[in-house]
# Entry
Amino acid sequence: MRNLVIRYAVFVTGLYFLSLGVVCIVKSTLGTTPISSINYVLSLNTPLTLGTATFLLNMLLILGQFALIKGRSTRKDVVEILLQIPFSFAFGAFIDFNMWMCRGIEISNYWYALAMLCVGCMSQAIGVVLELKPNVAIMSAEGFVK
# Structure
């Protein structure tokens, strides 16, 4: 049981680093990752925050997974998909928290933008490793592709 708790803690830590990477890349003003582009545009053109838009898109991907497995799902498939809901919520909350923490960051030149982009990429790389290594759950984008 202790091992499982540690694995989930590592997974959630990975989600935090992923969210920090998303925020750093957005703050770099050099664009955003493909998976976050729709969320980012929604956050710019609606009252939704980036974290809320990310959560809503993840919910659409979860619904898409249910549509794809309709009629041939196992209990394990359903549990795996339902487990994505709380993690999607946490991921969105982490994004909003990091956006709030970085609210004062303004990029003044291209070199600072490149540095922020590199920090974001490094943070996402760490997050991906910490998300995949414990092998406890997957996020909705990966689940949709799977």
